[in-house]
What does this fold into?
Amino acid sequence: MHLLRLLGTLCALGQIASAAPIGQRTSLAPRQASPYWLGQVQHQGLAAFNSNPQSYQVFRNVKDFGAKGDGVTDDSDAINAAIQAGNRCMKGCDSSTTQPGLIYFPSGTYLVTKPIIAVYYSQLVGDAATLPVIKAAGSFSGIAVFDSDPYESDGSNWYTNQNNFFRAIRNFVIDLTATQSGTGIHWQVAQASSLINIRFEMGNTDSQGIFMDNGSGGFMSDLVFRGGKLGAFLGNQQFTTRNFVFEGVKTAMVLNWNWGWTFKSLDIKNCGVGIDMTAGGAEAQTVGSVLVLDSKISNTPIGIKTVHSSTSQPITGGTLVIDNLSTNNVPVIVANNDGGAILAGSGGAIKVESWGQGRVYSPNGGSRVQASLTPRPQKPAALLDGNGYIFERSRPQYTDVPAAQIVSARSNGAKGDGMTDDTAALQALINNNVGKVIFLDHGVYKLTSTLYIPPNTKIVGECWATLISEGPFFADSKNPKVVIQVGKPGEVGLVELSDLVLETAGPAGGAIVLQWNMADAPGTKGTNGMWDVHIRIGGSAGTKLQSDQCKKNPSADGTQINHNCESAFMLMHIGKTGSVYMENNWIWTSDHELDRKDFSQITIFSGRGLWIETQEGPVWGYATASEHNVMYQYQLTNTKNVFLGMIQTETPYYQSNPTVYLPYDVNPAFEDPVYDCPDKSQGSTCAKSIGLRVKDSKDILVYGAGLYSFFENYTQECLKTQTCQDDMVSVEGNTQNFFMYNLNTVGVSNMVKVNERKLVPQAENQNGFASTIALFAQP
Ligand SMILES: *[C@@H]1O[C@H](CO)[C@@H](O)[C@H](O)[C@H]1NC(C)=O
Ligand SMILES: *[C@@H]1O[C@H](CO)[C@@H](O)[C@H](O)[C@H]1NC(C)=O
Ligand SMILES: *[C@@H]1O[C@H](CO)[C@@H](O)[C@H](O)[C@H]1NC(C)=O
It folds into this structure.
């Protein structure tokens, strides 16, 4: 999740109850009815672990705080008041999960003259049926219309960019046409963040849509950029974006820096330049790797501009993979800095099936290419849509469902107060409301045995409503139990989950947090899905896996395990019959505390990350990450038809004190990896968690990966020599049609091994801080 952490920032943490009662209307104007159900349903969200849960208001309608939305009144202060009411995590607060805010904007035109500050753990959501317009006045002044991380005059930020989690903005039009050079969104964020369904109207101005300076994300989809000078200025460690449309923008995107970025479904038309990735120049490229998949560029003189060449530095800097790009009237598809053609286009239609620049291992060798890319994967039909693109599906927002048909969990017996056992109430609620949309009001819902999700279940959380397992049922690592079971093995039907956080309360060494067995019915695709559902283990209020109990202690003997800090058996399991569409899922065993004031690093033990063993799939994962789990982050065994783009992992910071061998036994029933290390003792660089293990599998497409090992026993000395651990990807058994594009690693000696043969030394693929290969293929 992060590389550097700024310590010493203290958060008030909701200790002080707010002076004024919150939720009071500051205006007596009648509230306009809004057609979208989210604005109409009763709101009973409860911040269970807030210091003042009874009065803390989760849901805030901006009109209740005086915003007019009439296009003439300056609504900036009213909107910021709606966001900031109560004791929120603002400047000086590193993080907090107990001060959430869902800020709702009914349709209308909201005039603003200064930034709307999107504070920590906020979702800013517009009416999804009729998008509200946020209009920057001609007099607008400030970094951007929406600001996720304000800068102070001394250059400091409110939040540490790599720790700026849990942020969402969706369903807006941002109108910059009255400004000369406004910016739509300053988005400097990390995991569990999203921008979805936003249109930037920039007209004939020098405006830009997104300004992203840095962070560790992340996901965005369904954005439209029209007019203006620049659609998006992007800098971040790793990111996945999907379905961006640029129309008549001078430069669609400038990439300022990254380690890896996957762009799926770009549609760039009538622009000057599509993607400018020349930052840093040929001597010091700052863009690590870029992947453009299933995209279109038309009527644009230059598609992609790069400074990568056989002599550019770093040697794998500016790695680029183009996969299934249609161009029309793009005279130069890939250009060097002065516009000359590296990959020529034409005045007509040209299709680029597969092209790349960077280093390729297929699987042996390691050669530099800047040309048509081979070998090529066979893309299995199971993963494709009707047009031959990798299937994609935006989160359901249920705009066609009237408010009266939305079923509230809290109105139907579930408490979500972080104390009551809600297992039976939730099970009854789900069983009785098959086919309906269940609204899990914000809260923390405790589960003491398995919650079963039957076919045709739709659950949408309010601002990451939380389910937490607790008790002896989940505590025995020798007898693991599923917390949330989506379908029984072999079951078929639809399940949609969105906006949830799944947790465990320790000790929980036997908890399999989420198991997906349900499959799409024949002839349907992607009906099983989870969007913005995050597994967050430990480090937050109510988990009993916090810094008071599980604080890091690197100088102690790590083999002396504190079993109370066993946090999960496995985070997620896609079973033999499961198929699921995953989008923006952060599967995170916390490395540090989010709520207690020390924000200290913690040592907790989750045995396994995401295990995929579906026999037929399909599984799609857009913007998934799995971090800090003991035995592996991703494991694919006996599986096929899996698309992942991009994935991100981190090895636990405590390893190898203890090593991967502790505290869990290898369990063959779960296909656990056996680390056959010559040195099994503490200090072993072999006995550390693999980022991605693929065994006896086929038709596996990984489109972008950032797999990192930043620490050895909590120190970063090993980064100097990039020897924190031996291997990062392990391909085993009989694995076929395995293609991995834009693999980025940090801190490992060998990037990929195949049946223990070390094929990809990191040192020959150096790319600034990370190291990169454009393609590893085992056809
Ligand atoms: C993030 O970007 C800003 C703006 O370019 C820069 O001032 C700041 O130093 C960066 N922070 C980090 C941690 O790189
Ligand atoms: C690529 O995209 C085109 C549409 O332009 C589609 O017809 C084709 O089947 C796609 N897939 C592959 C694997 O080429
Ligand atoms: C881990 O690091 C600490 C210093 O932070 C040191 O005292 C301890 O001996 C190390 N333990 C092992 C097993 O390397």
Q: What stands out?
A: The radius of gyration is 25 Å. The chain has a mean pLDDT of 95. The longest helix spans residues 423-432.
